[in-house]
UniProtKB/TrEMBL annotation:
Localisation: Cell outer membrane
Protein name (Swiss-Prot/TrEMBL): Outer membrane scaffolding protein for murein synthesis (MipA/OmpV family)
The family this protein is said to belong to: Belongs to the MipA/OmpV family.
Tagged with keyword Membrane: yes
Record bears the keyword Signal: yes
GO cellular component: cell outer membrane
Keywords linked to the UniProt accession: Cell outer membrane, Membrane, Signal
Superkingdom of origin: Bacteria
Chief localization: membrane
Length: 284
């Protein structure tokens, strides 16, 4: 958790997705794909599988470190944008453990394309004093989260569903239903795309988009009660390029579309929430 310092190293969910994508895309690339080796006459799909063939390497762990930046809304619903750093620290061990800046993920079940994972992480919250429009609304505290993910991989497609519960803080319960696609275009270039829908409970919606009587008096915004339901739809596209045996770069562009009571909140200035990010990483 100490990898991220509030406001100086603030990561959005899109940034975490970008970081996780780096690990997934790079994990299948081996030294056989890199300069200095004779190219294969026919493209070998196995080299880019997210689970490397055991005979290719006896090493069970993989580590990527690096960083980059993201241009995104100042807060969810903001009409103003900021550039923030994106630290990249990703460690995997075998097929069952992944540690990244957002938390620890354990995958005890993998069978015929299906996987089931558990995760312990955190919700960074929100500091109202950082943004003029939010002043008077009060802070949302930093808190721990626990979650589950069920996924099914079919060729280059992955269908997934997640549920995450915040312990203390906003006490949010958030569900995500999505589909992702990733595939190699050349020996070095991998393209990806993702679409997902996010739903949230009353407590999350009230914490991030509601305005009670006390907050209205302090902020000048009208009272507003945000109810549970569809909160947001996200779409994104990415490209990962393997520079050599160790170095890689990845860029991602995304668009979040606030929906339901979130979109109608007086806190929200813009329903469309675009973002652009890029990272460079070194794989050990």
């Amino acid at each position: 958790m100490s990898l991220i310092v509030r406001n100086n190293w603030r990561l959005s969910s899109r940034a975490f997705g970008l970081a996780a994508g780096v690990m997934g895309m790079a994990a299948g690339a081996t030294a056989a794909d890199l300069p200095g080796r004779a190219p294969e006459p026919v493209f070998d799909q196995e080299r880019f599988n997210q689970r490397p063939v055991q005979k290719q390497t006896s090493r069970k762990w993989s580590l990527i470190i690096g960083g980059g930046g993201e241009y995104e809304p100042e807060y969810e619903g903001s009409g103003d944008f900021e550039i923030g750093p994106v630290p990249l620290v990703l460690l995997t061990y075998g097929e069952w453990l992944q540690i990244d800046p957002k938390g620890v993920t354990v995958t005890p079940v993998r069978h015929s394309g299906f996987s089931l994972s558990g995760k312990v992480g955190y919700e960074s919250g929100r500091d109202a004093d950082d943004y003029a429009r939010l002043r008077g609304l009060g802070d949302i505290d930093f808190a721990a989260t626990v979650g589950l993910k069920a996924a099914y991989k079919w060729g280059p497609l992955e269908f997934y569903a997640t549920v995450d519960q915040t312990i203390d803080g906003s006490e949010s319960l958030i569900g995500t239903l999505g589909i992702g696609y990733s595939a190699p275009v050349t020996e070095k270039l991998i393209l990806g795309a993702k679409a997902e829908a996010i739903v949230a409970n009353d407590k999350h919606m009230e914490a991030y988009f509601g305005v009670n009587a006390m907050q209205a008096a302090a902020s000048g915004l009208p009272e507003y009660k945000a109810k549970a339901g569809l909160k947001r739809i996200n779409v994104s596209a990415s490209a990962t390029y393997l520079l050599d045996e160790h170095w890689l770069v990845r860029g991602q562009t995304g668009l979040g579309i606030l929906a339901g009571d979130a979109a109608d909140s007086p806190i929200v200035e813009k329903k469309l929430q675009p973002s652009v990010s890029a990272v460079i990483g070194y794989r050990f």
